[in-house]
Each structure stands twice: as structure tokens, then as C-alpha cells.
Amino acid sequence: MALKRLSAFARQLALIALVSPLLSLFSIAPAWAFPGTGSATSASAVDAATAPISLSDALAQLKQMQFKQDSIKQQTSTATNSKDLDALAAATQQLSADVDKLRSQLVPLRTQVQAQLDVLGPAPASDVTPGTHAVARQRDSLTARKDQIDAVLKMADDQKSNLDILTAQFAKLHRGLLKNQLALRSSGIFSAQFWVPLLHRSPEDGQRLDAFDAQVRDMLRPVWTPGQRALTVLLLGATLAIWLGGRKLVQRGLTWVCLHWLPATRLRRSALALSTAIATLLATGIALQVFYLAVARHFELTPALSDLWDELTKLTLTCALISGLGRALLCTHHPSWRLPSLADPVARALRPFPSTLAALLLVSGTVEAINRIVDTSLSVTLLGRGIVSLVTALTIGAALLRANRVRSALAAAGEAPESHSTVAGLIHAGTALAIIVSLIALVIGYITVARFITYELVWFEIVLCSIYVLTQLNRDICASLFSAHLATGKQLKNLLGLDDKHLEQVQTVLSGIGTSLLMLLAVVALLTGGFGTTPADLINSFIGIIGGQRLKSLNIMPERITNAVIGLAVGIYLLRSVRRWLDKEFMPALGMDSGMRMSLITLFTNVGYVLLVLMTLSLLGVRWDSLAWIVSALSVGIGFGLQEIVKNFVSGLILLTERPVKVGDMISIAGVEGDIRRINVRATEIQLPDRSTMIVPNSQLISQNVRNVTMGDSTQGVATLVLTFPLDTDPEQVRDLLLDVYREHPAVLETPAPSVTFSQLTPDGITLSVTGYVGSPRIATSTKSDLLFAILKQLRAAGITLSNPRTLLVQNVPMKNDASHNA
């Protein structure tokens, strides 16, 4: 039985371990979806293991590399389009890789010379020992050789540094070119001039397109000869079969694995959604490779065709990701597997749009890529960008309108609306606004602006859907792996000696860490831009249109302002999300009381906002050495008018860290008693017994005497009464009477038992103190009142009087003989 359990545990653990790496594979876009991005790194890593090189060859290579670098700089001054800049940037990266390779070949040579010098040792003080002259000559020779190697290494490092600077300059040139393109205004889509290139192309465009068409024909000619035609048709058929049938086959296999190997928890739903997207992506990637064999197996691609293939690969896999994510999230065939809370009619209405958008993007994006590679005229380029923007905006807009129409129909039919968060509503509104802005830009002639908005919108949807699926998968993996009711959790409990509480804590911590990393990845992906630009570039372009030179003269930098605003908004959202996670999941899992939770959350929030302000100032480009006058002004302000605020703020931090009082404590200060409800930065809120709230500055809680009723290990209250009786009273009778009253009251605890103390004997009488414990200090006052009523009743029945009624909270009753005398 134990062996069977261990086998089941190992199988589930292995399966989850296989699913987990898909987080990195599927995060935003697959690494293998962009051919060539890792080729330079892998090539340099392989070349680094080559044998050392001679100094003369190294110097010759450095001179040749310097000549290539100068040539790149000369060509950069004449580059006018993105294609030329991309080619020069690629050449710079290759040259940088060659410098790294050369340096890696020189390092072993220097290590060898240094080892020989270490064997010879340092130069002796005198050369009187026979043979020292030969050793000295050898040492001098090795030292000179080491200096030469160091000089060559320094030259290589300098050249590497120059190449890095040149690469950064290429990025700036790209951004500058993009800004100029965004600011360009042409004819709108309703203008006949916009559609002229579709009907009539210029001679230059015709020559370039004909030359590119000739290259395509040269590529296809070898595979369409009589001896190769059958194999080409077979490979094209295999491409279509893999693309259509392979996806379904892979998806069925992954679905069977998820249903039969994974536990019957929410992990199945998230794993099924991920498997749907991966099946689409995997089938498309394999189909692309087969398609390449079908059309280019006997042809060495020209630079233009190689660029087209790279762009087509990126575009195809991106469109496959869009289609796969749409199929995974809508899940119309199995509504119970659907991750988002979408009504089934809404999901069925949206079903065709992801695939339609992917197909339109594939066609229009390919046309735009051809225009860029061929370097067509501006009118043709704008036509391609306008078509891409138009089909994207119309498709997404039609999806939003159809979803709203279906929701309105459901509401009219009396069905309950879908539950969605405020963030989902903001995303929906932002998407609609982006579509409207892009359509307006197309109408008034800002084609590149519209293209930028629509492409960024598509990238935003890809990132958002991917992060949503991965976040759900991360939570479900942690919940299933550390569940005390499943085999994995039980095995972990037995192997590590954990209990259910510890498993829940580990689950909460790991789930929170994974979610935070995924959110950070999403923020980085969104801010860096998915299509070679950032939102700040668009703002800069509009600022340039309005009056960029005037703003520059005022030293206002729109890019920094935009980054600061975006960083502040994202930071506030993340801070609130983390605070909500700490309050609702993490701290309750650790078993913290409400007071500790509130104190730590308040401290975390205060520190988080301070760091957020510092980050915003940093994004604005504020230099801390230029804030000296602000610090001086604050010092004067603190000295005169802000000292009380600062004192209360520091006192609040002391209260949150030392915790002499915490939220939920019952305290007494300046004759006022109540419960602490909130500790703010400046003051503390105390709720009084009459339900009113008293605001007490934090400094008073630090500087004054405060009675904390609920502080300590015990949460019990004390009900003590002090009563004075005449000297002729029997103290033992009174003691038994008081103890009986205390024992009969339901609020008085049996342990510790009530007790009576003979506290004082004076000419006025005897003083007895009776003490009993209650369950909470908050009921001590009401219990005292009940006890006094009961004691008064018993004293009347026993004919016992009190010595000095003026000192008591209750009024004494006259004796029976006095009553008869008065009668």
C-alpha cells in the first residue's frame, strides 16, 4: 500500500513538474518563435571554447574589426529607413560577438603566461646566485609578453565599449525614426489618394516588387520541377494536415493526460486551457518547418527572403497564439472547463473572432512586411499600415459590439448579468476607447498612429490573456500540490512532518510569489512594447506636433512624464493588490490576529507609498543632489509648523513596530476607555462605549501613561468590589454571602475561583474586598453591576447593613426595626 501511494505521489509530482516549466515557455511569446534572437549568443558560447590565438593574429583581427566599425558608422549617417538601421544593428551585434570571441581566446593565453611567472616567483633582491641572470631574462620576457597581452585586451575592451555605445545609438535612431513616422500625416482612408497605390503603382515600386517576385520565383522553381513536384505537393499537404489535424490530435492527447493524470481539482481546467493554446502553437510551429521544406529545400535564401521568412515566422506564431488563447479562454465545446466567468451565449458569440483576427493579421501583416523588406514608397507603405490597422480595429470593435449586444439580450430576458471586477470593466472601456481613437486617426490621416495603437492593443490582449492563464495555472498547481486532501499533500506531510496549517502557509506563499513574478513580467512586457516601441513614443509624437520645441525650451520631457505616470498607476495597482493578498490570504494563513495584521499592513502600505513616490521621482529624472533646497525648506517648515505632524508620524511608526498598543486592544487614556479601531499615520481612532470615535494623536500614546486592559497573555477581566460593614457584622457570614453571589453569576469563572480579602479594620467598620474573574475585560463593568444588584438583594434578606453608604455605588436599605419605628 505504501509503495502504491508513493508511486501515485511520484506520478502526480512528475506531471506537475512537467506542467510547471510551461510557465516560462508560454509566458509572453515563445523564444523559438523569433528565429535568430539567440543565434549570436549560442555561437559566441561555442566559439569561446576555441584554442588561444597569437598576439599578431589578435592585433590584425582588432584592426580589421576597427575598420568594420568605422564603415558601420559611415553607413549609419546615410541610413534613412528601418531596414537599413536593422541591417547595421545586426552587423554591430555580430562584430561585438567577434570581439567577445577574440577576448575569450586571449584570456587563456594571459593565464598561461601568469602561471609561468608564478612558477619563477618574484625577482630576488640580489643576483649573486649562479643562473639567476637566465631566470631574470626569462622573467623579463614573460612580463613583457604579459604587458602586450594586457594591452591587446584593453584594446578589445575599448572596442567592445564603443560597439555597445553604437548599439544604443541605433536604438535611439529607431525611436527617432518612429517618432517622425508617427507625426507624419497623410490622406485619410476616405480619401481617394489613400487607395491610389492599390490600383496604380509607381515605376520604382513596380521594379522593386518585380525584383522581389523574381526572387520568390527562383526559390519556387527548383521544388516545382517534374522530379520534385510530387514531393512538394506531399509536403504542402502534410503542412495543411499538421496545421488542421495535428492540432486536434495533440490537443486530444494533452486533454487525456490532464483528465487521467491530474487530480480532480481546478488544476484540470487551467491545464486544459494551457494545453489548448500550446497545441495550437506547437502544431503551427511544426507546420511552418514542413512548409519551409516544401518551398525552400533546394534554395539558399537571399537576404530579402530570409527577412521575409523571419517576419512570417514571428507573425504566424503570434497569430497562432491569438487563436489558441481565444479557443482556450472561450472553450465553447466544454463550458464547464471555461476559466473566465463568461456567459455561454457570450462565449459562443465571440467564438469566431480570435481566429478571424489571427487570419486577417497574418495576411495584412505579411503584406506590410513585404513592403518594408522591398522598401516601397511612402504611399504604398502607408496603404499597408492602414489596411492592417483597419482590419484589426474593425474586428476587435465588432467583437465588442457583438458581446455587448448578447449581454443586453440576456439582461432583457431577465438573466443575471456576468460578474466581473472593476479592472475588467476598465480594460473593456480602454479597449473601446483605443478602437475609437485608431479609427479617428485613420480618418484624419495619422495612419502610423492608428497602426501603432492597434498593434499595441493586440499585444496588450496577448499579454493579458497569457498572464491570466498562467496565473490561474500557478494558483491551481500550488493548491493541488500542497493540498492536505490529495496524495501529494499527504506524502509531503508524512515525509517532512508538516501539518495542515504549514501546508496552507507554503501554498499561500508560493502562489503569491508566482503571481507577483507573473504580474511583474506582464508589466515589463507592456511597458517595453511588443512591436518595437513604447507608449511614451506616441505621447512624444503628439507633443512634437503640438509644440515640442517650446516644451524642450522649458526642460519638460514628455517621455519621462509618461513613464512616471504609467509607473505610478501600475505601482498603486500592484501595491493595493499585494496589500489585499496579504490581508485576505497570506496573513490569515499564518494565523495572525487581526491587530497584528492591521499593524503590519499599515506599515507595509506606508513604506510602499514612500518607495512609490521615490520611484516616481526617479522616473521623472529628478536628481537627488538638486533637491537640497527642498530639504532646506522642509527643515524650516518642520522647525516652525510641521513639528507636530512629524512627531505624530514618527510616533505612529513606533506604535506599528513596537506595538505597545494594537488594533483591537482596549485601552484607557486621560480618563477615557475604548477599543482601538485603526492606527493611522498621524492619529489613532478609539471607539468609545457609546459607539462614538475619539481621535488621539499618536504622540500622546507614546508620551502619556496608557492603560492597556487587553495586553498580556491573559484575556480575562476582573470584577472587584470593595464593601465596608459595621464592626458588629459577622465577617464570615458576609464572606460566604459574597462568595455565593459570585459563584452563582454565570459570567464569573470557576478558575481562578472567587475570593474575599479582609483588607482593612477601622473605627468606621470592616472593609472586605471580593474579586472574581470574567471571560473578557469588556464585560467586567456589566458584571459588576449585576453583582451589586444581587449583593444588595442578599444583604436585604440577611438584614446586614453597610457602614458608610456615601462611599458605595448602591444605596443602603434601613433595618426592619427602623422601618417599624417610622411606621
TrEMBL record:
Molecular function terms from GO: mechanosensitive monoatomic ion channel activity
Extent of the signal sequence: 1-33
Domain Mechanosensitive ion channel MscS: 645-710
Major place of residence: membrane
Keyword Chloroplast in record: no
GO cellular component: plasma membrane
UniProt entry keywords in alphabetical sequence: Cell membrane, Membrane, Signal, Transmembrane, Transmembrane helix
Domain DUF3772 residues, every copy: 154-213
Gene3D superfamilies in alphabetical order: 1.10.287.1260, 2.30.30.60, 3.30.70.100
Parts of the chain that traverse the membrane: 230-250, 271-295, 353-370, 382-401, 422-447, 453-471, 509-531, 561-578, 599-620, 626-646
Domain Mechanosensitive ion channel MscS C-terminal span(s) in chain numbering: 720-800
Membrane topology qualifier: Multi-pass membrane protein
Residue ranges constituting the Mechanosensitive ion channel transmembrane helices 2/3 domain according to the UniProt record: 602-643
Pfam family, one: DUF3772
Keyword set includes Aminoacyl-tRNA synthetase: no
Subcellular location: Cell membrane
Family: Belongs to the MscS (TC 1.A.23) family.
The protein, known as: Mechanosensitive ion channel family protein
The organism of origin for this protein: Paraburkholderia pallida
